[in-house]
Amino acid sequence: MPTILRAAGFRFFFHSNERSEPPHVHVERGGACAKFWLQSPALVWQTGFTPAELRRVRRMIGLQRRKLPEDWHEYQGV
Question: What is the DSSP letter of 8?
Answer without folding.
Answer: T
